[in-house]
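Look over this one:
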Amino acid sequence: MVAIGAVRRPHGVRGAVKVFSFSGEIAHFEGLSRVELRRKDKVWSANVEKVLLQGGVPLLWFSGVTTPEQARDLAGAEIWVPRDQAAPCGSNEYYITDLVGMTLLSGGDSCGEIIAVVDGLQAPLLEVKRETGTVLIPFMSQYVGDVDTEKRTVELLVPWLMDTE
């Protein structure tokens, strides 16, 4: 399963929601019939009754959600689907789900495990767990090199980013 977007806010008076696409692609939303909605404290399945792509924004109608108030309750929930229903990744594109659990390498040696990816001002930040705690590494080409999805490794180009003292 991969996260493909997040519910933003209600749209109209019949329970539709506006969705933010994590990949920027929206065509794959049209084929959705069942999704998993996730919040930190809750995970639940939802049937998708209707999808409309309007001005580059997916609008979704979920079964049982018929009012703006019910739609507002979904705001912030991430939309998860099986990988084959997600937009394919392009060159040098990765789903956050794929990065979590990878080993960060510096000079060919392991220097930590990526345990999360968090939003940063200029770029996503890799949260890396190491023996002495965690550190945040900007996921930018000047700091991070090769991402090998088969070996599950990410190359760190700037080793001093691991120094926390």
Observations:
- The chain has a mean pLDDT of 93.
- The longest helix spans residues 68-72.
